[in-house]
Amino acid sequence: MKLAQRMDRLGTESAFEVLAKAKALEAQGREIVHLEIGEPDFDTPAHVVAAAQQALDKGYTHYVPAPGIPELRTAVADFLGRTNRLRTTPDRVLITPGAKPIMFFTILALCEQGDEVLYPDPGFPMYASIASFAGATPVPIPLREENGFVVDPEELRSLVTDRTKLLILNSPHNPCGSASTPEQLQAIAEIAIEHDLVVLSDEVYWALRYDGKHHSVLDLDGMAERTVLLDGWSKTFAMTGWRLGYGVFPEPLVEPVTRLMINSVSCTSAFSQYAAIAALEGPWDDVDRMLEAFRERREVIVSGLNAVPGVSCLEPGGAFYAFPNITELGAPAATLSDRLLAEAGVACLPGTSFGGYGEGHLRFSYANSIDNIQRALDAFAALVES
């Protein structure tokens, strides 16, 4: 069977491939510490689960409007205002089954052959994959360790051409754990306005910050009219399996993206949207507890990685990823990650899973217990020593 050529341009997400390899080893009786997959290891808050059960009992099992039920669109707008992130109206909020459709639909609606999409590298691999699939040219913005793994505005400016259509930002950042500063975002906003760029701001880790307020390009004047906000419930509320995301769109994109939703997913499941309301309007205690646990784990994994000879690791400002430098060990990142899994029983990802500029690094998710993190660190150190 001959596939369409566009399929050659569509990549994948390595975390799921490594997870499959790790599960296969476990099936053979091996003990594996999972630091590869990017999802909280906490249960969804009980009041959210209860809201979903109540919705099912009430018969919310049918089609709903493609953009989302009005109650949830209103709840998202209210939540963004209440948390001082964005003042918006419900008609600009679209609910999707997971946050990835926000990337897909935004790029499909805006970008075509000849357009260029600027994206962070290292960065979430779907950015370049979807841009290429749409026929556009993905252009990496190098995130350099000496710059704290954040976008350098001057380097960004040098990459903008008359074909640049879309700029993708991500903060807190996957895989590096870095977080943007107000000064950096101000400079980026000026570039976006000067060159009339649309911005896709991926803020799915916004609540997982360790050093104060979350900063967004949407904080700046003139950016709400040209920025798509991407967020969801997966990371903040430990709801990865619920597949719930949302986007806040500039008005000209609302109808085209709604059409894309109708042509692809129809709508997001009804009962889960009532659970999403409960998450936004309910208590914040579970989120605070999760963040505090991640803070403790961050200290353990960063100090442990820095104690391994030949390894250095910056302290992440957000999310739940450590991105250590392993260049002194003399092995390509993919080779070392394979050996860690096969010989040490530690599942992680090579930095190259997130782009060419990720070479010389590994990504460890510390969404696991401190005991398991320590086991992984001990196994890593033993492998290096041997």
Automatic annotation (TrEMBL):
Transmembrane segments: none
Domain Aminotransferase class I/classII large residues, every copy: 31-380
Cofactor: pyridoxal 5'-phosphate
GO biological process, one term: amino acid metabolic process
Name of a matching Pfam family: Aminotran_1_2
Keywords assigned by UniProt, alphabetized: Aminotransferase, Pyridoxal phosphate, Transferase
Source species, domain of life: Bacteria
InterPro entries in UniProt: Aminotransferase_I/II_large, AspAT/PAT-like, PyrdxlP-dep_Trfase, PyrdxlP-dep_Trfase_major, PyrdxlP-dep_Trfase_small
One GO MF term: transaminase activity
Record keyword Nucleotidyltransferase present: no
Family affiliation: Belongs to the class-I pyridoxal-phosphate-dependent aminotransferase family.
Name listed for the protein in its UniProt record: Aspartate/methionine/tyrosine aminotransferase
